[in-house]
Amino acid sequence: MKKTGNRFDIRHKETLTLFLREYFELFFPDLVDKIRFETARFLDKELIALFEKDGEKLSGEDQQRITDALILVDVLLEGMEEQIFIHWEQQGEKQDAFNQRMFHCFCGIFFKFKKPVFPIAMFTDSAKWRKPVKDTYTISLCGYPINEFTYRLIKLKHIPAVEFEKKAAKNPLAAAYLPLTDYPKKDRPLIKAKAIKGITGVEQGPKRSVLYSLIQQSLELNPEEEKKFREIIGDNPMFKEAKMLQSIEEVGMEKGIDIGMEKGIDIGMEKGIDIGMEKGRKETARNLLLLNVLTEEQIAQASNLSIEEVRRLKQEVEGATQK
Predict the structure, then answer these.
(1) Where along the chain do its domains lie?
(2) pTM here?
(3) Chain Cα centroid distance, residue 253
């Protein structure tokens, strides 16, 4: 089990929580019809307890930093409904003996719950491995095989970007993961534009906010690349929606999302995002009102607020500027 303070890793776990079906549609499409996603339960506390040593409990801070996921879900196996565990881990770097660590986790989960375990490790680092990480762990003695363990290893950087581009229209998760796939360095601004375009079909709210934040953290552009990115979304009509989404974030929504996400760690992820989104929407509307370039209807559409709420904020803004 991995502990990390990296918010990028935490963002990946939040994405899995909100897009579990889409995740399997993207990486394990043959299993989608067998899994009843509506029954999925994320058992973080059970996972934490499983690896506490000698009854010594982890601190609240350490618990927040754990980015593995343990999911209990119903599946159909040979016509019979059964429960299985999915053990998922996002890994930001290559590590020695990683296959052995996955095996240890598998053994602990199976020993505790006596149910089938489907282990997944997704590597999100930017390196192209010359020597791959082993996805099996074997034990033998004097030529006699004792055990062979296999887990599903996903290495995003080894997937051509074009594969996810083709899937982005139907699966927004493919768009969000696009920055972590394989493409020429010169295409970084274009890839970010395509990624943002690919999530504009997601209804505004917690889900889209998490995907946007994941894209931002996955692909941080330098000033020259950022200029090229803005030219792409500004000049090309096919990126019109991406430009609007980007503009909304620039005038304050991202700040609101981050507030909500941080609170969400303590009071429930989705509730936290909603709090941040509400603050972000109002901050967005206030900033757009101060710019005085859009109509009330356009601001309502951009901030996902009602006309009445925008008009109340307008009165507040006008009152503050007159003082």
Answers:
(1) 7-158, 185-323
(2) 0.75
(3) 18
